[in-house]
Amino acid sequence: MLTLLLVRLSFAVIRRRRSNQVAFGTGSHSELERAIRAQGDCAEYVPFGLNLLGCLELNGAPKCLVAIPALTLIVGRLFHAKGINEPPPNFTNRVRGMQSTFGTLITLAVLNLGCLAYRVIGDWIRFYNTRRPHQALGMKTPAMAFALAA
Question: Which CATH number fits domain 2-112: 1.10.10.10, 1.20.120.550, 3.20.20.80, 3.40.50.1980?
Answer without folding.
Answer: 1.20.120.550
